[in-house]
Write a structure and sequence with these properties.
single chain, mainly beta, Ubiquitin-like (UB roll), 4-stranded mixed sheet, 14% helix, elongated
């Protein structure tokens, strides 16, 4: 009997030896890992259950696990060659053993090579004790401190680590480089735009220290101009700065058509046509012509001019002349001027306007000849990273002014204020949250309807017709969830809320809903918006919404 058992055992061993080149892996497991999950480790290695056992591949897997720990800055970790265990199914189980030791703390950071900035200042934002994983981030803080103080060519490197009994001392070497005082600008790619124009547009003249953040914002300022396609500002050395741009076309045509799909009234087309001649003679001077059809009864035409001002002073002006015709009831002509000083992020200016209103051909006359004068000041702030498709930053506008006019030989003055706050936040990957709060108020003192602010349409309260509401108190909130398709393209869904109050009525439950698209094509930037509304009592049928189709093309 015992002879038969011995023969059976020898047969099994002999069979296994014959099949040794086809030994397969059973279960793969990990021991000792707490800092990294089993799933992440499993995705890192090449070996899989059911594969033929390969010692060379197991060596590679051990190395890959060690590299993963190093990549995550867990440096005090040992990864052993895996255990190989047999099981009853003639397969071998693999166990990767990991020893995660607590990383020693760095109790002291010694720096050398710093002449211009003291060690006390450099270490002021660094904790007295920190882990080995935090060393790189602390070295980056030191480098950023140098960059923020005008040393753009500074470098911080780890010289050595010295083990004590229970902790470490890190020695870092600093190469400060020279303090950057840019005296000479070099230019590349500006075939039309003048050198002095680029310096002025950047806002670098007003910057006390040139830092990486300042250079990034200066490039964004230049990119705000529609005739600039690309811009990079690169330090060549501590005295020279390169402004490299790629110019776009210098003429712009844009237009929007709005179509009211409601079944409750006649179909109504609104929209505008805009033609701009940009960067005249390379000086950033612009000339613009705009025609608008606001609704069935109101059309306007406007000519505006941007004066870039003196070459070496950041002072500019915007001037516009417009004519609004409301059916045959009245004609309104307006002259507006903004004169402002600007720096990297701000504009501070004075506002001046003259309005003349004349009765139309309609009889009897409903409007008397009236004149208004406006004078005030404004402030604009912007920290947006890219004006056309921002992913971060805020924009704030505030305008305060007085309105003067005569009523029956009496001088009347009123105060008005307009404010805007817009916020952008990147949520994840290409998703961006955008919201804006807007308010326009005028003192309710012997007001005429012509002085009211307007609300409704593609520019503020989508889902309603253009300028559908007006009042002396107007406010609206725009909220968008955007998905960026490219630097200039996006898809978004929106929700708008509006409030309007006049001497006759107050409406505080105006909502707009819809979606939109901005898509860069060979013809230009295509815009498509679809919105429907709720006026507080009734929800417009989503199939009967308002469509806005637009195209912006450079010629």
């Amino acid at each position: 009997m015992w002879k038969n058992k011995l023969l059976l055992i020898l047969f099994v061993i002999f069979s296994n030896l014959l099949a040794a080149d086809e030994i397969t892996i059973g279960k793969i497991s990990f021991e000792g890992n707490q800092l990294i999950t089993n799933d992440e480790l499993s995705n890192t290695i090449y070996s899989r259950s059911g594969d033929i056992l390969d010692h060379k591949k197991l060596n590679e897997d051990t190395s890959r696990i060690a590299k993963l720990y190093k990549k995550k800055e867990f440096l005090n970790v040992k990864v052993f060659f895996p255990k190989i265990l047999t099981n009853n199914t003639l397969k071998f189980d693999i166990i990767f053993q990991i020893e995660e030791k607590q990383n020693p703390q760095i109790s002291k950071l010694e720096i050398s090579g710093n002449r211009y900035i003291s060690s006390q200042k450099l270490l002021s934002n660094i904790a007295p004790k920190f882990t080995l994983e935090q060393l790189n981030s602390n070295m980056q803080k030191i480098l950023e401190y140098y960059n923020d103080n005008g040393f753009l060519f500074a470098a911080v490197t780890l010289d050595s680590l010295v083990y004590n009994k229970d902790d470490l001392t890190a020695f870092c070497k600093i190469e400060e480089g020279s303090y950057c005082e840019f005296e000479k600008f070099r230019f590349r790619g500006n075939k039309v735009t003048r050198n002095n124009t680029l310096i002025k547009l950047s806002g670098l003249q007003s910057a006390e220290h040139i830092t990486p953040a300042v250079l990034e914002k200066a490039a964004d300022n230049i990119l705000k101009k529609q005739y600039i396609k690309e811009c990079d500002i690169i330090p060549i050395d501590h005295k020279q700065l390169l402004i490299s741009i790629k110019e776009d076309k210098m003429s712009l045509f844009s237009g929007i058509i709005g179509y009211d799909n409601s079944q409750k009234k006649d179909k109504e087309l609104t929209g505008f046509v805009n033609v701009e001649f940009l960067n005249l003679y390379g000086t950033d001077r612009n000339l613009t012509f705009l025609w608008q059809k606001l609704n069935a009864d109101r059309t306007s035409i406007e000519m505006s001019y941007h004066e870039s001002g003196p070459q070496h002073i950041p002072l500019s002006a915007d001037i516009s002349v417009s004519r609004l015709e409301a059916d045959s009831t009245y004609i309104q002509t307006t002259l507006e001027t903004d004169i402002y000083y600007y720096d990297l992020k701000n504009k501070y200016g004075a506002y001046l306007a003259f309005d003349d209103v004349f009765p139309g051909s309609r009889r009897p006359k409903l409007i008397k000849k009236t004149s208004y004068q406006k004078i005030g000041a404004f402030w604009q702030f912007s920290s947006l990273d890219y004006y056309q498709n921002p992913t971060k930053g805020i924009e704030f506008n505030l305008k305060y002014y007085y309105i003067f006019n005569k009523i029956e030989n009496r001088n009347i003055s009123k105060q008005a204020v307009e404010a805007t706050w817009i916020y952008n936040k990147k949520i994840f990957n290409r998703a961006v949250f955008n919201t804006g709060f807007h308010a326009s108020l005028i003192e309710n003192k012997e007001l005429h309807e012509l002085e009211y602010f307007h609300l409704g349409g593609n520019k503020n309260l989508r889902g309603f017709t253009e300028d559908q509401f007006n009042g002396y108190r107007v406010g609206w909130i725009n909220t968008e969830l955007r998905y960026l398709l490219s630097r200039t393209s996006r898809f978004f869904v929106f929700t708008d809320y509006g409030y309007v109050e006049s001497q006759i009525i107050k409406q505080d439950k105006l909502f707009g809903f819809g979606f939109g698209l901005r898509l860069q094509t060979k013809l230009g930037l295509l815009g498509l918006d679809y919105g429907f509304s709720h006026n507080g009592t009734e929800l417009r049928n989503p199939l009967d919404g308002i469509i806005h189709f637009g195209l912006e093309s450079k010629l």
